[in-house]
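To: structure desk
From: M.T.
Subject: fold request, one chain
Message: Could you run this one when you get a chance? Sequence is below, nothing fancy, just the single chain.
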Amino acid sequence: MHKRSILFLPLFVLLFFLTGCVQNEIVLQPQESRQESQSQNNNGWAKQTNVEEDVDISDIEEQSTAVTESPTTIEEEMPRKRVARIPFPVHEYRKLSTIGKGTIKGAIYLRDMYGQKIPGKGTRLYLNPVTSYSNQWYKESYLGGAKMEKADSRLFNYLRFTAADNEGNFAFYAVPSGSYYLIGTVKCGYECGYDSPKNVRIATRVSVVGNQVVQKDLVKSIE
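Reply: Done. Structure tokens follow.
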């Protein structure tokens, strides 16, 4: 009996060490990943936006006419070196509302020298929240006619798109309260004095609060 106990003693010792070394595996999600996931879940408005669209807010299309803002005229600008964008202001965009009930609607068109309307038939429009980032675009590109470097891809989470009908009428629904740049293009050729059709960009600022229905046309006159 004593010999048998001695034989089993090493076995008990071995089992003790083996069970003591085995621990349950705990997987911790990195803090950065958790924050990013939470941010994506909170941005309900971004989920409604088609972020797959390859839209550069400096020029909606490669053939867009670079123009300077004028109350009554459109002036073409010579090609310039692309302007560097400021760093993307993450803190500004995190403060933006992501859920809303507002409506922004109107019509997009050019007005020729005879007062006739040239509608933006089926053109795409978008709302770009007013921030220091979009203010730079408005000042440098839209008003100044300069071409900008490609926009930060994070911007597209905050844009909202729609399309005009054949008469140039458009509408944005469920818009969060805030101020936006309303932007679109109208294709125009000989009516505008061009030898071939070009896309003329138009932009203006608009604000909406709560469940307001805001009427705002996008118009540019040609002489």
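Reply (cont.): Confidence is low (pLDDT under 50) at residues 21-77. Let me know if you need anything else for the meeting.
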